[in-house]
Structures are given as structure tokens and as C-alpha cells.
């Protein structure tokens, strides 16, 4: 069948004639000189063409592959017809941050990996099209501020990462008076203080937070729940609480010499170099230095690429498994390689060496080989006898992942039941062991993805709405009256 998608504007079967496009990306030599986002947008004609490659499957696997079950074929067909505002409207129905997810989601592991169109034709460019339609909507002033009729009930959201923001957004749309308590001085969580600006411009986060403010969400920043205010005080002022406090306790490096000068955790380093405010930490200067990053996840890739942008002379990632078993996104690995990072796979640190001034000078490493799969399904690394070697280093950045911060005793939060790694336990509605206290995001999953936190925030908002409107009508404390805003 001959088919010209440019003429018909239909989203169906054009993948036979049109190959997957490469999203415009700045050259590596240019992008390592700044912290601006590296990808730009396709033009309108290319978006229509690329969207027209979608097959419009009857049972779309991309929807199943998306943790938010986004109606991807729905917006593809509208985008193919050039109806970008309508397409953006469809994408907003299931996602509270449809301009942020396409920038940070590992689509190659989610929606795009599920797409029925495989190599060599290549999956539909789902992320690039989602980003385009939503930026188009912003550029045309077509992102509505939803003002719901107040229902007279108050909810506290603790933490303003993607989980907290999504929960606040959904609750606001149901008419709740929502106050977000955030220990940092700016809202955004890891969107602001973790994920580097070259992946997600900080103004994009600010723009989203401002939409919530305009919808009536109140942000109380610089307030740590459990320290500045206890859980019972929150529950006396609100009828429900959502805990979206993430998993922000960095895993330690447990080898001799870990206390040497020049050894830093990756997250504070990233926060310092990327956050839009001064965090008051002593600056970590990597200019002209040999930087070794330990770990193989997204944080490790971000540390490497941030160090390169800060002028490191050499940037090496040492990871104990091989590339196939590395958890980091392949897209970000490829970007790190292009920007000049080096990778030493099957390499594990044994000890750090230092000089008389107590500064780190090298990492004593051992080569690893992979054995049988462990509980995570990845092959377990083991040391190769007699393969020790020394890797010179002036700065070491540890990116071994995170655990949830334990709830402080006496804060009321210690009543919330946790599992063996401190993850908060929730039921099918997102409610914890404390009635009226819900949780979601990294605090229940451990380090995960933005899109999972959004999913959990939405789910908990629905759980809170059910709890407050049906289940506990007679038992939920009234709280003080809500002042008209
Ligand atoms: C360096 C790095 C890079 C990443 N890159 C990606 C990526 O590219 N793509 C992706 O999908 N995911 C990425 N992630 C993971 C993603 O950022 C997280 O999964 C997601 O942000 C979790 O959202 P959250 O809402 O659960 O918590 P967070 O985003 O961690 O937010 C928690 C918030 O709670 C606040 N808080 C904590 N305790 C309290 C308290 N007691 N009182 C008040 N406030 C409190 C914190 O200050 C923080 O603002 C990355 C993570 C890191 C660390």
C-alpha cells in the first residue's frame, strides 16, 4: 500500500518509509563547556513525520511500558495531524510533569523498549514527541491552571520531589488545601538538587512548581518534618499526610582510607554544582584534577559529566560489574563517553592511598569477574586473585546509591512501619501503618525513577481522597477550618 504520511497526516504504518529520527543534540565539545540541556526539539514537520510512524496498536505495549500508563497512541495520532495542543492535553491527563518526564525518563527501558517497532527501523521517538507537544503548549500559553472548588479539607505533603509535587497537584485538583513542607530552601527535591541541569534545566522545575503555587499549593521551605515539626502536630492541622521524603542517605565507601581528604559523596557534589542556590557547602574543586567515580548508576554518570564540565583533567568510572550488568541508562552512558569520560568495568576498590597531608592520591583496585546471578538477577562479581593495581586519583566521588533516612525517634514518624532497609511500608492505597499517613516515591521503593515517584504520588492522592471522602468520614479529625484563599 502506498502511503504518504505527510499528505494524510495519519499516524499509522509510516515507519516503513520513515526511519526513527535522531533528536538534535549539541556536539560533545560544545556541551562540556556549560550546564545547558544537551537535547533540543525536533521542528514541527519532523514531529508530524515521526509521530506518523506510530502503528496505533490495538493493545499498545508502550502504554503498558509506561509506569503512568500514558495514552501514547492518543497523543501520537493528534501530533501526526499537527494538533499539538490537543496532543499535550491528552498527555497531561495521566502525567503531572509531561514536560519533565521526557527529559529524564530512560525511555529505552520503558515505553520505547516496549514499542512493537524494533531495530533496524527503530522505536517511535516517544520521549522527543512528548517533550515537543508540551513545550509547544507552554509556548502557546496553553497549560491551564486548574482551580478546583475548595472541599474544606487540609492535607500536608512532606517533601517536594516529584512524588510530593504530583500528590499535591492531584489533591489540589480535588479541592484540598495542600501545604508542602520541604527541608531545603527551594522546592523540587532531586529534580533540583540531584539531576544535573544538562539533563533538566532548573527553570523547567521552577515553572512546574509555579503552576502548583498558582493552583493554591502553599510551600513551606526550610522546614524539616520530624525535627522542626512532629508528625502529631502535622496531623492536628491536617486530615492526612503524604510522606514523599525520598531516599537520601548516601551509601558509604567501606574501605581503608575512606576518610582521606578529597573523598566526597556524589550527591552533595552534584547538588553544589547544579543547584540554583548556594548550599553553603565548602566548594569541591575538580579543575585540573584526576577524578575517579565509584559506582555504575545514573548518579555515577551524572558525577562524571558534571566533573568534566567543571574542568577535571581525567574522569574515570570504576564499576565492579560489566557494561551489560551496569544499572545506569545506556543513553547517559553514551553521552558520558562522548563527553570524554573513561570507564573501567570489572574494577573494585580495595583501599585508598594518601600522602602525608592526608589527601587521597590513588585507589588500590582489584579486577573482578562475574559469577552466578545474585538476588537482583545480575551476575555476582568476585575478585580475580593477584590482579590488584593502582589507579591515580586526586578526587574520589562515591555514587553507590542511597537508602531512606531513618525516622527520628520522638518525632512521631518512628510509628511508621519500615522494612529491613528502612523503606516505608504502604498498602494498596499508599497508606502507611499510621492511619491517615500515606507515602510514595523513593521512600517506599528505594532509589528509583522520577516517573515512579509521580505514579506513587498520584496513587496516594487517590488513596487520600478515598480515605477522606468515604472510608473515614466519621473518624478523621476535623482540623482547623480552611481560610478562603
Ligand atoms: C544524581 C541523581 C540523578 C538521577 N537521575 C535520574 C534520571 O535521569 N531519571 C530519573 O527518572 N530519575 C533519576 N534519578 C532518581 C530520581 O531523582 C528519584 O527517583 C526521584 O526524585 C524520587 O522522587 P521523590 O519525590 O521520592 O524524592 P526526592 O526527589 O528525593 O525528594 C524528596 C524531598 O523530600 C525532602 N525531605 C526529606 N526529608 C524531609 C523532611 N523530614 N521534612 C521535609 N522535607 C524532607 C528532601 O529535601 C527532598 O526535597 C536520579 C537520582 C539522583 C540522585
Summarize this entry quickly.
This protein is α/β, with parallel strands linked by helices and 485 residues long. 32% of the residues lie in helices and 16% in strands. Flavin-adenine dinucleotide binds next to helix 10, strand 2, helix 14, helix 15 and helix 17.
Instruction: Please compute the radius of gyration using only Cα atoms.
Output: 24 Å
Looking at this structure, what is the CATH superfamily of the largest domain?
Answer: FAD/NAD(P)-binding domain
What is the CATH class of the largest domain? Alpha Beta
CATH topology of the largest domain: FAD/NAD(P)-binding domain
Bound molecules: flavin-adenine dinucleotide
Unreliable residue runs: 1-8
Domain unit count: 3
Which sheet architecture does the biggest sheet show? 5 strands, parallel
